[in-house]
Design brief:
This protein is of the alpha+beta class. It has three helices and five strands, in the order E-E-E-H-H-E-H-E.
Length: 158
Amino acid sequence: EKLESDKPKTWHVMIAVHQAVGPAGCDTYRYKVSTVEPIVVTGPPQVRAAHGDELASWWMMFVAERAPIPYRWLTTSVGHEPPQVYFRETREEVMQAFREDGHLRQSRSCSGSKLVGLRSRGFQFTPPPGFVRTEFGNEPAPQGVTVARDLSPAPGAL
């Protein structure tokens, strides 16, 4: 019989992704893409960074498909800051925390700032095996597998 603390839990999740600040400070614009409403997922009773990373990766694929221009803003040579991922038990809690941290506002630090809010309607998240376990992302490397770290350079590379 599963303990109460081991049972999967329903989480409400909000995600914000900021463009990294380039060498010139604001680089004229500061871009951010945020969810507008929570994404509902089934996860472990306690979430870890690996759970947020997995969900943020799926979200970025969704952004690439739904908003290709903002996606390009976030994936320039400067890249983006680590996504801010909020897991809360209720819709109200996650919306309040997300709003209080300013993720539904444009950046005040840069004069040219752009916030792109995306609805999560149509967002598909297929959890990988083990996502509902607290240890997700902390599995040992598979046995009998060789990991090549020092690959020879590609032909024609310097």
